[in-house]
Design a protein that fits this description.
Helix content is 56%, strand content 11%. The protein has 318 residues and is an alpha/beta fold.
Length: 318
């Protein structure tokens, strides 16, 4: 057995299929803490274990493996699907998926980041922000679905109000958790000084920027999914599109902040500069959202507050 083997694990509700890179055999164990710990005791030290992100089903494995001193990589399901397609895979089973994850990890681990276990507070905030996004999407879907009905059900207004109340309660819970933390509270306060930032975005940004160790602002932009993807080939220069990877709710909140900020006296010249260049409204707003994200990164990194004079000086340049 390799000293630091690459292991792929396919997770289901009841079982785990475990494969090791360059080995044909696949082990099946129960997806329980006791069975996982028993399996981990048989492994060499400092293994590299890859697992697909599957809602909550992989969390017990991740927690136990990290506690045992192994490096764990929580992989994007879409990336693995594209990888399998590129290899010409014609079948999909749990055993094949485990072997695929092991192969992917063995070849791509240098470009991947090991998973970092969140603190109890970070877990709460992660779950709260994720569930909030679900409520926002549900509210929008329900409202849009009934928008064209001439005679709407009487319960519709109450259902939409109920979702709004739920959102308000979740926002308050997020604010309370942020303010109670000695690190997040001051950082969120600093972010509130940014023109366009509200309490919800300030708390979400403070959490995101302290949850992951971003080396520079570009890494944070890529994490949010506001990084443009090039599609060039030969003499053809394709249209740039956003990757839209990462937390959708944070991306939506930033866009909403840009939509609000572009109407202010401070940010209107910045926004209008790109509109005058012929960029459509959405593209100019995305540029403004990226600018806001970079400012937030700098504020959190240096522990400073927003200085509007820097923006005014930038907008005054020809």
């Amino acid at each position: 057995m390799e000293s630091h083997p690459f292991i792929g694990v396919d997770v289901s509700q009841l079982t785990l299929d475990v494969a090791q890179a360059h080995h044909s055999s696949v082990l099946k164990i129960d997806n329980t803490a006791a069975a996982i710990r028993g399996w981990l005791k048989k492994l060499p030290a400092q293994c590299r274990i890859g697992v697909e992100s599957t809602g909550d089903l992989h969390r017990t494995l991740v927690r136990c493996a990290i506690a045992a001193g192994h490096s764990v990589y929580v992989l994007n399901a879409r990336d693995l699907s594209h990888y399998a397609r590129a290899l010409g895979r014609r079948a999909k089973t749990d055993r094949l998926d485990a072997a695929l994850i092991a192969r992917y990890l063995a070849r791509e681990h240098e470009n991947l980041h090991p998973y970092r276990m969140p603190t109890a507070l970070q877990s709460q905030l992660d779950e709260l922000i994720r569930r909030r996004h679900t409520v926002v999407v549900t509210h929008g879907a329900v409202r849009q679905s009934f928008a064209t009905m001439r005679i709407k059900p009487r319960a519709l207004a109450g259902a939409l109000r109920g979702l709004q109340v739920l959102l308000a309660q979740m926002d308050q819970q997020l604010a309370d958790l942020t303010c109670e933390d000695p690190q997040l509270g001051p950082l969120a306060g600093h972010l509130r000084t940014v023109v366009g930032f509200g309490p919800l975005l300030s708390a979400s940004m403070a959490h995101a920027l302290t949850r992951h160790p971003f080396a520079h602002a570009d890494a944070f932009i890529a994490y949010i999914g506001y990084d443009p993807r090039a599609r060039d080939s030969g003499q053809k220069h394709g249209r740039r599109r956003l990757s839209k990877r990462g937390p959708a709710e944070l991306r939506r909140l930033l866009f909403t902040a840009a939509l609000s900020a572009c109407k202010t006296a401070l940010w209107r010249p910045f926004y209008q500069r790109y509109r005058d260049r012929g960029l459509p409204t959405t593209a100019a707003l995305v540029i403004l959202a990226r600018k806001l994200a970079r400012i937030a990164f700098s504020i959190v990194k240096h522990g400073t507050q927003f200085d509007p004079r820097l923006i005014q000086d930038t907008c005054a340049r020809p």
